[in-house]
Amino acid sequence: MPVEVELFGFFAPTLLLVLMATAAVFVVLDLLLARAGAYRYAWHPGLFRVALFAVLFCGAALVIHET
User: Fold this and answer.
1) Global pTM?
2) Within the chain, where are the H helices?
3) Structural domain of residue 12, as residue ranges?
4) What is the structure's pLDDT at 12?
5) Distance (Å, rounded) from C-alpha 34 to C-alpha 19?
6) How many separate domains does the chain show?
C-alpha cells in the first residue's frame, strides 16, 4: 500500500481516500437505517452514528493496511 497517492496534482495520504470512501458508505447506510427506524432502538442515536462511522473507518483502514 502506498503511503501517499497523487490526487489532482498533489500528494494526499492514503487514509484521506479511505475517509472519503467511508463517508460515502456511511451516508448511504445512515439513510437506510434512518428510514428503517433503527435509531429508535439506540440509547443515544448521535453516539450510535459516531460509533458506526468509527467502526467503518477503522475497519476499512485495517483492510487497506493489511493488503
Assistant:
1) 0.83
2) 14-36, 45-66
3) 4-66
4) 84
5) 22
6) 1
The radius of gyration computed from the CA coordinates of the chain, to the nearest angstrom, equals 15
Residues in contact with 3: Cβ distance below 8 Å, sequence separation at least 6, in sequence order: 13, 14
Amino acid at 57: F
29 CB contacts (<8 Å, ≥6 apart)? 52, 56
- Through-space distance between the first and last CA atoms of the chain, rounded to whole angstroms: 7
> What phi and psi, each to the nearest 5 degrees, are found at residue 66?
-75, -25
Answer for the pair 22, 64: CB distance below 8 angstroms, yes or no. no
